[in-house]
Every structure is written in structure tokens, then in C-alpha cells.
Amino acid sequence: MLATWANANYLSYPLRFVHRDKPDFLLRYNKKEVGIEFTEAVSQEMAETRALAKRTGVKATLPMDQFKRGTLKRTKAKRRATIQDEPCGEGWKDDEPEREWAQWMMDCSLAKTEDFNKPGFKKCDENWLLIYDNLPLQLVQIEDIQDATEYLMVKLNSYWLKKNRYNGILVETKNQLIEISSGKWNRRAMVNLWT
Q1: Would you kindly state where each structural domain of the chain is located, as residue ranges?
Q2: Does the structure show a pLDDT above 80 at 19?
């Protein structure tokens, strides 16, 4: 994220980036302090099923559509059956992956905004939420990401009316950084310093 922002000339030097808690990071530059809270959008059920596959040495292709938002917690026996069966499921219909993604990002934003409003959370000049997208969705085309972000923007309309909220939301998804603030969004290719 920092490399992408630096590449976009958002940052000025010198700067200081400090790991802490509530928020997770403080970024100081140009006499400005930016709080950045980090979270991961992940299907906990899928993560636990993948972990079971890894622990038991099963190389499984998991049917992504069986891990939609709100999926009920499976028993260990059902997880074993999932990783041992041939992958099958209903599949995704029309723009269902894009709408599902938008709702996941909205849920993450609302949950972290609750934390933002708890005592002990340091408010800064600017406060950003960074969401790492680790969801089992197949948003591989740029058009899919654009459509999903447009759905999220509609969901966020009431969010921007709240008094105590993040100034913006950043989503790292499929090597893209989506920057969202009240009424606007922008997508940038991630700058990866390690490749």
C-alpha cells in the first residue's frame, strides 16, 4: 500500500510509519498523521477447511461457491467430506460474485468501524481502513472488480453520513488497490517492491 501511494505521489518525505495498536499503523508525513487500521476479508469456514486439508495432506480443489458469506460452521466430519469429495456446487449466477464481494467489504467496514468508535482507539488527522481481500471469489477481470466496487459504493452511501467513521477505505484485491472515499473511488495497480 505504501509503495503504491508513493508511486502515486500521495506521500512526501521524510515520513514515519509506526506499527502499533488501535489503529494498527500510524503514518506521519508533512505534519499530518494518518491512522491505518488493517483487517482481512476471509471466509473463516474456508480457511479452516483449507487448514484441515493441509494438515491431513489432502490436495483438494474446494468449490468456492460453498463458502459464501454466512455459511454455517461445518463439523470436522463435514469438512473432511468436503475436501475428499469431487468439487461440485451450484456455481455463481450472473453478478452474484460481485454482489457477494461488495457485501463482504461492507460487513468488514461496519465491523471495523465499531472498533473505531470504542474507547482507546486513537483518532488521527485522517483515518483509513485497509482491507486485504482473501475471499474465495473469482473476480479476476478488471471489469468484475469495477462492477463489484460500484455495488459497494451504493452500499456505502449511508456509511458516509455517519459522524464517526473512517475517512476512506482501501481494498487490496487481485494486485489492485481500490481507494474509496465519500462518493468516489479509484483503482491502482499495486506496486510490489519484492518482485
Answers
A1: 2-42+94-189, 44-84
A2: yes
